[in-house]
Amino acid sequence: MVLNFLTLFKYSWKTSSYFVSSRRLYSSQFSKYDSISDRYKIHILPALSDNYMYLLTDKFLKFGIAVDPVEPEKIMKTLAMEELELRAVITTHHHYDHAGGNKLISEMKKNLTIYGGDERIEALTNKISHNEILKIGDIVIRCLHTPCHTSGHVCYFIDCETIPEPICFTGDTLFIGGCGRFFEGSANDMLQSLDILSALPLSTKIYCGHEYSLNNLKYALSIEPDNEEALNKFKEIQEKLKKSEPSVPSKLAISHATLLPGVKMLSPVTFG
Ligand SMILES: [Zn+2]
């Protein structure tokens, strides 16, 4: 695979310049859930200015798993409404806007297990390693170490018999239409991390850590204005945001024909 590190660097910083404007597009008023089956739901809960927290719930065994619960009150309120117990927290990385609610949520729910791949994660109880399998109820989660945005970043992949479609919580490693900034790693680290994610089934539903989708695609179209797939995805997401709906989830797909230069060379980017 040919990799243009310089272009990737430029891409990473270019996307960051859109962060401020993306906040204007984001409504913190909505929350919704995806019905995975009769048994499971994923609640998509906006937090802070443009973060997403997630709550995976199991109606049969009556529990929930929170992903990056930076605003614990919203998580606990959703659990109370569904009459479910919080069983565990999975944390993608140590940044405040992802792990900053861990201490409070561990005070709200005693003896809570908090997973993560980095000692710097607040209130961490169980440090996990690459390819470690967590079994929580009937949910089987594979931990994928994806360093670069932070050195201890972990994505959580779920593909088990009880869940009909594969799911991945990608934090700040992979967004819809782009990847995270390189705070603690090189372009080569990001390439290796994206290679890990690109080996997942293309039908995997991606739940990422921020609502950056529209601006990522805006940038893609500034480079490739005739890219039809990017244009269609841009329009689809624009409509969703107008209706105050989140752009997540999106299916993982790899398409060299549709991606922007710099990312297309290394590129699992989410479209679909
Ligand atoms: Zn981050």
Automatic annotation (TrEMBL):
<keyword id="KW-0378">Hydrolase</keyword>
<dbReference type="InterPro" id="IPR036866">
    <property type="entry name" value="RibonucZ/Hydroxyglut_hydro"/>
</dbReference>
<dbReference type="InterPro" id="IPR035680">
    <property type="entry name" value="Clx_II_MBL"/>
</dbReference>
<dbReference type="InterPro" id="IPR017782">
    <property type="entry name" value="Hydroxyacylglutathione_Hdrlase"/>
</dbReference>
<dbReference type="InterPro" id="IPR032282">
    <property type="entry name" value="HAGH_C"/>
</dbReference>
<dbReference type="GO" id="GO:0004416">
    <property type="term" value="F:hydroxyacylglutathione hydrolase activity"/>
</dbReference>
<feature type="domain" description="Metallo-beta-lactamase">
    <location>
        <begin position="50"/>
        <end position="210"/>
    </location>
</feature>
<keyword id="KW-0862">Zinc</keyword>
<dbReference type="GO" id="GO:0019243">
    <property type="term" value="P:methylglyoxal catabolic process to D-lactate via S-lactoyl-glutathione"/>
</dbReference>
<dbReference type="GO" id="GO:0031123">
    <property type="term" value="P:RNA 3'-end processing"/>
</dbReference>
<dbReference type="Pfam" id="PF16123">
    <property type="entry name" value="HAGH_C"/>
</dbReference>
<dbReference type="GO" id="GO:0046872">
    <property type="term" value="F:metal ion binding"/>
</dbReference>
<dbReference type="Pfam" id="PF00753">
    <property type="entry name" value="Lactamase_B"/>
</dbReference>
<dbReference type="InterPro" id="IPR001279">
    <property type="entry name" value="Metallo-B-lactamas"/>
</dbReference>
<comment type="similarity">
    <text>Belongs to the metallo-beta-lactamase superfamily. Glyoxalase II family.</text>
</comment>
<comment type="pathway">
    <text>Secondary metabolite metabolism; methylglyoxal degradation; (R)-lactate from methylglyoxal: step 2/2.</text>
</comment>
<protein>
    <recommendedName>
        <fullName>hydroxyacylglutathione hydrolase</fullName>
        <ecNumber>3.1.2.6</ecNumber>
    </recommendedName>
</protein>
<keyword id="KW-0479">Metal-binding</keyword>
